[in-house]
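$ ./design --mode recover --in tokens.txt
reading tokens...
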């Protein structure tokens, strides 16, 4: 704390990302990265961009990328907003679309960046408890609100919500923006993007960090009615004209175009997840049904924090959230390669003594 800080900074509680250890040879299952790596076509496009052209600013509107996203999802470029990771896209959404008189609503157990943005932009919020089984009850989101946001599948539970329920929510809240953060949708959920045509209050957020294995490139986007997108453009153009650099635009366009790499790798993750769930269940773990590239699990007889430490001693890192209390006995484990998951299961077999 310093007397030079502004009041808003004094009051911030920043988000703490999962650690990125410098040690090699760790089995890193703590930040939901994709083990298969980016599309080779994306890497080639990035390499092709390295040269003299870097002396020039990139396209401030990243038109090529908006077009590639629009082509992939069957919308128009005016319905697409792109940003420096979906975290930046979300930040602009909180300021541009969710800051109103009424508090916004999100689940009590969800992506922990949401309350952080509320702190930064002074957005009022109210959390809505998940059901006992960690599902989102859309009936609980009918109270007056300034907007609604949650991930589908939810994080860190991995539980998906059916599209019909999202439609119910949209119908019940015609005066609020409903933001569906689909960071993990490609691993088994059903995207709400086709509903954008019919619901001018729906905004769907995607990232290239997870299913396209480009966490290091920092690219995310939002799809919604052109009027919602315009609000985000106004915020972006009041903040940073060039959030996406030339390498990011080139790589992201190629990644969106390489449907084959996208499909094989996301299917590989899904297959490995199903095996991991079966193996952990056999060891006595309870696993929340997951449609993500991670699972959320507890062992009724073993303390989660101790298990996470024991895994770390075996060079495997997973994520454990101490708070909120309700999830303190759970571990969030990223689905790695088959070999990584086999090593994880072997280590947990020792730890739980099964
Ligand atoms: C990973 C994640 C993001 C952020 O993704 P980036 O594009 O890497 O910033 C957003 N929302 C949820 C729920 C996530 O898990």
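writing sequence...
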């Amino acid at each position: 704390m310093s007397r030079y800080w502004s009041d808003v900074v004094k009051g911030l509680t920043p988000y703490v990302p999962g650690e990125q250890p410098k040690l090699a040879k760790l089995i890193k299952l703590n930040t939901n990265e994709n083990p298969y790596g980016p599309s080779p076509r994306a890497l080639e496009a990035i390499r092709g961009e390295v040269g003299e052209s870097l002396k020039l600013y990139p396209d401030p509107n990243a038109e090529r990328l908006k077009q590639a996203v629009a082509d992939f999802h069957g919308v128009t470029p005016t319905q697409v907003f792109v940003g420096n990771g979906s975290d930046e896209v979300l930040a602009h959404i909180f300021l541009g679309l969710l800051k109103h008189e009424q508090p916004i609503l999100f689940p009590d157990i969800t992506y922990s960046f949401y309350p952080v943005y509320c702190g930064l932009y002074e957005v009022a919020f109210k959390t809505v408890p998940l059901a006992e089984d960690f599902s989102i009850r859309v009936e609980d989101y009918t109270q007056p609100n300034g907007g609604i946001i949650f991930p589908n599948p939810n994080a860190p539970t991995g539980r998906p919500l059916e599209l019909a329920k999202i439609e119910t929510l949209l119908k019940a809240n015609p005066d609020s923006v409903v933001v569906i953060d689909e960071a993990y949708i490609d691993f088994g959920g059903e995207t709400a993007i086709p509903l954008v045509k019919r619901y001018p209050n729906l905004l769907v957020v995607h990232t290239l960090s997870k299913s396209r294995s480009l966490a290091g490139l920092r690219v995310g986007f939002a799809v919604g009615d052109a009027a919602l997108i315009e609000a985000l453009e106004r915020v972006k153009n009041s903040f940073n004209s060039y959030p996406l650099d030339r390498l990011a635009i080139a790589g992201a366009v190629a990644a969106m175009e390489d449907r084959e790499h996208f499909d094989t790798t996301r299917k590989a993750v899904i297959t490995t997840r199903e095996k991991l769930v079966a193996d952990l269940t056999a060891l006595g773990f309870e696993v929340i049904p997951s449609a993500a590239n991670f699972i959320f699990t507890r062992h009724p007889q073993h303390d989660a924090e101790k298990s996470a430490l024991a895994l770390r001693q075996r060079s495997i890192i997973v994520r454990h959230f101490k708070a909120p209390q309700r999830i303190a006995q759970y571990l969030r484990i990223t689905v790695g390669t088959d070999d990584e998951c086999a090593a994880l299961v072997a280590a947990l077999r020792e730890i739980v003594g099964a």
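exit 0
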